[in-house]
Amino acid sequence: MKQAELLRKIPKVDVVIGWMTDAGYIRVPPLPPETEAVQETLQLLREEILSGIRTELPEKEATMELVRQTIRRKTAPNLRRVINATGIVLHTNMGRAPLGERAVAAIVDVAQNYSNLEYDIDAHTRGSRHTHVEQLIARLTGAESAMVVNNNAAAMLLILNTMAKGRKVLISRGELVEIGDSFRIPAIIELSGCLLSEVGTTNKTHLRDFENAIDPEQTAALLKVHTSNFRIVGFSETPSVTQLAQIGAKYGLPVIFDAGSGMMADLQQYGIQDEPLVSRCIAEGADIVCFSGDKLLGGPQAGVIAGKKAWIDAMKKNQLARPLRIDKLTLAALEATLRAYLEGTEARDIPTLRMISERWDTLADKAETLRKLIRENARECKVEVIKEFGQVGGGAVPGQMLSTYVVSLQPEKISVSELEARIRRGEPPIVARISKDQLMLDVRTLNEADFPYIAAQISDSLRV
């Protein structure tokens, strides 16, 4: 059928509204989002016909289903669930670490009820929100004390403002990193009220560079930042935490270490290299260590600060502690996540660690299960299981890839990019990646409970 004829046969808006009201899918009269959904669906049909993607019109029932999908999308919450088929475990744009069942249950319990957030039950007096996780963090890291704020940038701001306001902070020039969305370490140092003092060069900073830059009257601290999101390789060198601690002890200066991703369990056996273990940082002599809660720790967004009690106590009294403080729901999730580490159940109870540590044969079985489900109703599409690589993400372990299995799709009647767009418009959206002219669904970041929905969405999306 020619394009012009197809365009003429597209039903009118009021006709489709009539179908929908007769079937009980929309109200009488329809709400504005429902009318808009009909208009948008018909406009999409026009665009697909004009672009050559669609060579025939959907039947009445199929048209109504397209409208229903659009209504669901338009009336869904702005912040909502998506299905991550990219293989990026800590996808910053998708909220980084998903929480485990224990953490979610803890949030629900605290959210639905009153809690002892700042109430000391035993003493029948006002308490502190810091007490709920302070000892847990201390036990896990070997630190004297700890506190938590709302993210790691906030942690760095509070640390510097407390420990070095108005004085110099020495940092290697090669560690002046920029984190997500253009937030930079130099800017945070400036905002904290400290004076930035760069030492060394971009690729090489020696211990003597720090020692030569120390001004007994002006220098307040030595700062080391783990370059989580990039690596300098080749002719490069930077002092270790242990080396800085020796210089700090010699001149009476505290050593601050931004450890970045907050690795609490050694993940080297799963291919995670060059990420600092928090407990090791404390043992090597860092006076204060800060890190994220929602990266390799696998918990909610938070900035965890651990180290010497005197410094932590001073931070708790800093006026910035209140505007930067963590809320009760995040505290509940963080406590549940930390307890999983203490009980040795982190690989089971924390989704991030479970995905990173998933066995090769388990991934293969998951991929084959998904392939079969898709293949059952997707005849006009090449569906294969292939070996690929994914990423940890979240600014962690750059350049290190995780071996994985993906289900690759090559549709015959529509383009790969059109298939990707269609499954992304579902509810919930399925976010996948395109590589080598194939749509790839990485099973590492997928839940098997979602497989039937994924297969059905792909089947529906392949219908021209």
SSE blueprint and pairings:
Elements: H1 3-9, H2 13-22, H3 32-51, H4 60-75, E1 83-84, E2 88-90, H5 101-112, E3 119-120, E4 125-126, H6 131-141, E5 145-149, H7 152-164, E6 168-172, H8 185-191, E7 195-199, H9 207-213, E8 219-225, H10 241-251, E9 255-260, H11 278-283, E10 288-292, E11 303-307, H12 309-317, H13 328-342, H14 346-349, H15 351-356, H16 360-377, E12 381-393, E13 396-411, H17 416-424, E14 430-431, E15 433-435, E16 438-442, H18 451-461
Parallel strand pairs: 1-14, 2-12, 6-7, 6-8, 8-9, 9-10
Antiparallel strand pairs: 3-4, 5-11, 10-11, 12-13, 13-16, 15-16
Helix pairs in contact: 3-4, 5-13, 6-13, 16-18
Summary tags:
single chain, 464 residues, alpha/beta, Aspartate Aminotransferase, domain 1, Aspartate Aminotransferase, domain 2, 3 domains, seven-stranded mixed β-sheet, five-stranded mixed β-sheet, 18 helices, 16 strands, 19% strand, elongated
Give me a quick take on this structure.
With 464 residues, this protein is of the alpha/beta class. It has helices spanning 3-9, 13-22, 32-51, 60-75, 101-112, 131-141, 152-164, 185-191, 207-213, 241-251, 278-283, 309-317, 328-342, 346-349, 351-356, 360-377, 416-424, 451-461, and strands at residues 83-84, 88-90, 119-120, 125-126, 145-149, 168-172, 195-199, 219-225, 255-260, 288-292, 303-307, 381-393, 396-411, 430-431, 433-435, 438-442.
Describe the model.
The chain has 464 residues and is of the alpha/beta class. It has three domains: 3-75, no CATH class; 83-95 and 355-461, Alpha-Beta Complex (Aspartate Aminotransferase, domain 1); 101-349, Type I PLP-dependent aspartate aminotransferase-like (Major domain) (Aspartate Aminotransferase, domain 2, 3-Layer(aba) Sandwich), CATH 3.40.640. Helices cover 41% and strands 19% of the residues. It has 18 helices and 16 strands. The protein has helices spanning 3-9, 13-22, 32-51, 60-75, 101-112, 131-141, 152-164, 185-191, 207-213, 241-251, 278-283, 309-317, 328-342, 346-349, 351-356, 360-377, 416-424, 451-461; strands at 83-84, 88-90, 119-120, 125-126, 145-149, 168-172, 195-199, 219-225, 255-260, 288-292, 303-307, 381-393, 396-411, 430-431, 433-435, 438-442. The strands form four sheets. Strands 5-11-10-9-8-6-7 form a seven-stranded mixed sheet, sandwiched between helices. A five-stranded mixed sheet has the order 2-12-13-16-15. Helix 6 packs parallel to helix 13 (328-342).
